[in-house]
Amino acid sequence: MAKALRTKDKIIVTAEMLFAEHGFEQTSLRQITSEADVNLASVNYHFGSKKALIQAVMARYQSVFMPALDAQLTELARRAEINGATYNTVDVLACVNAPLLALKQVRLDGPVIYLRLLGYAYSEIQGHLRKFTMTHYGNTVQQFFAMIQTANPSLCANTLFWRLHFSLGAMLFAQVSGQALREIAASDFGEEAHAEETLAKLLPFVAAGIAAPDPRP
Amino acid sequence: MAKALRTKDKIIVTAEMLFAEHGFEQTSLRQITSEADVNLASVNYHFGSKKALIQAVMARYQSVFMPALDAQLTELARRAEINGATYNTVDVLACVNAPLLALKQVRLDGPVIYLRLLGYAYSEIQGHLRKFTMTHYGNTVQQFFAMIQTANPSLCANTLFWRLHFSLGAMLFAQVSGQALREIAASDFGEEAHAEETLAKLLPFVAAGIAAPDPRP
DNA sequence: CTCTATTTTAAACGCTCGTTTTATACACTC
DNA sequence: GAGTGTATAAAACGAGCGTTTAAAATAGAG
C-alpha cells in the first residue's frame, strides 16, 4: 500500500512536469513512465487511461486554485459592501495572485506549471477543460465574471465576454510560448526575466484592454 | 502537366482547410488525400514531406499578407512624414486589415483560414514559424514594431515587446477557439457573430492594452 | 508509333502510440 | 506459513502515422 502510493505519485509528479513542458498530446506514456522509473502499464493500472491521468493532473491544481480564487473574490466583494466603496478591474484581476501562489503547496513551481497546463489544455483538448471547469467551479467563474462586470458597468456583457477571453488568450500564449519569448527578450534587451515577471507585465495590459471604452454603446 | 497541377492544387487547397480546422499535427496525410480524392503518396511526390506541405501552405498566405502589410505601413509612415502629423496605436494596428482582406485573392475565406493557421503554427511548431517569418519578412515585422514604438514613445522597448506578444496571443486564441467561443456567446447573449466581427472586437482591446501607461518608467 | 519522362497507384515498411494480457512479486490477514 | 488481494513486470496487440518502393498509367516529343 505504501509502495503503491509511491508509484502513483511518481507518475503524477513526472507527468505534470512533462505535460507542462511539452503539452499533453506531445507527451507519451512511455516518456512519463521511463522518466518516473516505473512500468509502462502502471499508468493504466492506477489511472485507467491517459485521458484520466490528464484529468487527474488538472484536477489536482484546480481543486486548490478555484476555492482560493473564490475566497479572494468573496473577500473583495465583502470589503466593498462593508465600507460602501467600489472595486476596479485591477482589484478583481489581482484576486488571482494569491490563489496562484497557493499552488506552491502542490509543488514548488506549482504556479508556473498550472498556467502552462492551462495553456495546453485550452489549445489541445479545447472544449473539455472548459466543460470540466464550468461544471465543477462554475459558480466561481461566474462570480469572477460578475465582478468584472460590476467594475466596468458601462460595458455590455457581450463585449466583456470577449475581452475576458482575449485576456485568457494573452495569458495562455505568454505561458506556453513564454520560455522562448523570454529568451528572445533577454537577447534583444539584455533583461533576464522569470515567469512571474512575465505575469506581472500582463496585468496592466489586460486591465487596460478590458476597461477600454466600448466602441458601440 | 495540366493534370499534375490539378492534383497538387487539390492537395494544397484541401490541406489548408483541414489544417485550419484541426491543426497541423492533428491532420493526417490520409485525411487530406482521401478528402482531396488523390493518392496518399502524391503528397510526398509533389511536396517531399508533410513538413514541406505545411511550409508551402503557410508560405502561400505569408507571401500575400506580408508584402501587403509592408505597403500599408510604408504608406502610413509616408503620409505622416509629408504632413508632419503623427499616427497612434490604432492607426498602426489597422494596417493589418487590408492585407488580411487581400487574402481573399488566395481563397474566399482566406483571412479566416490564415489567422487560424497562424494560431496553430504558433501553438504547435513553436519556434519554426517565427524563424521562418523573421528570415523572410523580418524587415516588415521590424517596421511594424518600430511604428508601434513611435506611436507610444513613452513605453520602453521591453514592455512593448511583451505587449505585442500578448496581443498576438489574444488574437490567436480568439481564432483557434473562436468558433467554440462564438457558439457560447450566441447562446448566452443571443448574438450570432462571424469571425470578422470577433476580429473587430479585438482591435479596441489590443490598442488599449498596448497603449496603457508603463508601470515602471 | 515509339520512346522517354512525368505522374499516379497500390502495397508495404518501420515506427510510435495507448492499451491489454499474462505472469510474477509483494504485503497483509487469518 | 498459507492464502488472498493488490501491485509490478515484460511482452505483445492493434491501430495510426509519415514515408518509401516499385509497378502501372499517362503525357508529350521526335
TrEMBL record, chains A, B:
<dbReference type="InterPro" id="IPR050109">
    <property type="entry name" value="HTH-type_TetR-like_transc_reg"/>
</dbReference>
<dbReference type="InterPro" id="IPR036271">
    <property type="entry name" value="Tet_transcr_reg_TetR-rel_C_sf"/>
</dbReference>
<dbReference type="GO" id="GO:0003700">
    <property type="term" value="F:DNA-binding transcription factor activity"/>
</dbReference>
<feature type="DNA-binding region" description="H-T-H motif">
    <location>
        <begin position="28"/>
        <end position="47"/>
    </location>
</feature>
<dbReference type="Pfam" id="PF00440">
    <property type="entry name" value="TetR_N"/>
</dbReference>
<protein>
    <submittedName>
        <fullName>TetR family transcriptional regulator</fullName>
    </submittedName>
</protein>
<dbReference type="InterPro" id="IPR041586">
    <property type="entry name" value="PsrA_TetR_C"/>
</dbReference>
<dbReference type="Pfam" id="PF17939">
    <property type="entry name" value="TetR_C_30"/>
</dbReference>
<feature type="domain" description="HTH tetR-type">
    <location>
        <begin position="5"/>
        <end position="65"/>
    </location>
</feature>
<dbReference type="InterPro" id="IPR009057">
    <property type="entry name" value="Homeodomain-like_sf"/>
</dbReference>
<dbReference type="GO" id="GO:0000976">
    <property type="term" value="F:transcription cis-regulatory region binding"/>
</dbReference>
<dbReference type="InterPro" id="IPR001647">
    <property type="entry name" value="HTH_TetR"/>
</dbReference>
<keyword id="KW-0238">DNA-binding</keyword>
<dbReference type="InterPro" id="IPR023772">
    <property type="entry name" value="DNA-bd_HTH_TetR-type_CS"/>
</dbReference>
